[in-house]
Amino acid sequence: MKYLHPRFLFPGQQINEKVCLITRPHVIVLFLKYIFWLFFIGLLLGFDNYIVPSFTFLSNGYFPAIINLGRTIYLMGLVAAAFTLWVLYYLNFQIVTNERIVDMTQDNLLHHVTSELNLNRIQDVTAEIRGFLGTFFDYGNVYVQTAGEVERFEFINVPHPHTVAKLILDLYEKLPPEQKRPAT
Question: For each of the chain's 184 residues, which pLDDT tens digit applies?
């Protein structure tokens, strides 16, 4: 088994490669997902406080046991959903080094994709901020146009997208001229 040297931050990092930026989606995106998650907590509270007291037959016979079983299963699902939201947020990130961009994407708990792009393959970098929340909290998308198989690298909902785009372009400009590929 190959272990990472303490100096290395991610698998496949080269000896002379320096990490310039590690970015994840803005924390407000995670917060908004948890706000939606709270809606389902509200449904459970509404059921317990309004539906069950309104129908007296739910308090007799086997109904309380069935309701408790359903509530327990529902709560387990809510806890699993909260955990899944956090894991997917934490495992989706991009690393910008002085040589390349590495995109780690966790689509779901069982599907992980890692993409790499050498800086010398960059053709264009675009930053985009949309909507009130994006403008207010300064988060948006960064698109890196390439000449490779993957035509576009996307950093979705990252904080300070204009700063990220400028950093990538500055790193590209620092490459020696012989490493830069001519635009086609």
Answer: 344 445 567 777 888 888 999 999 999 999 999 999 999 999 999 988 888 888 888 788 888 889 899 999 999 999 999 999 999 999 999 999 999 999 999 999 999 888 889 999 898 999 999 999 999 999 999 999 987 666 678 999 999 999 999 999 999 999 888 777 655 5
Helix 27-46 and helix 63-91: axis angle, to 10°?
Answer: 180
Residue 9 lies in a domain: no
CA distances (Å), 76 to each of 29, 59, 89, 109, in order?
A: 23, 23, 20, 17
What is the span of the domain harbouring residue 122?
92-173
Cβ within 8 Å of residue 22, ≥6 positions away: 9, 93, 94, 95, 96
Number of domains in the chain: 2
In this structure, the answer to whether residues 165 and 99 fall within a common structural domain is yes
Q: Is 35 helix (H, G, I), strand (E, B) or coil?
A: helix
How far apart are the C-alpha atoms of 27 and 168, rounded to whole Å?
22
Q: Is residue 52 part of a domain?
A: yes
Specify whether 44 is located in the same domain as 107. Answer: no
Position 132 in a domain? yes
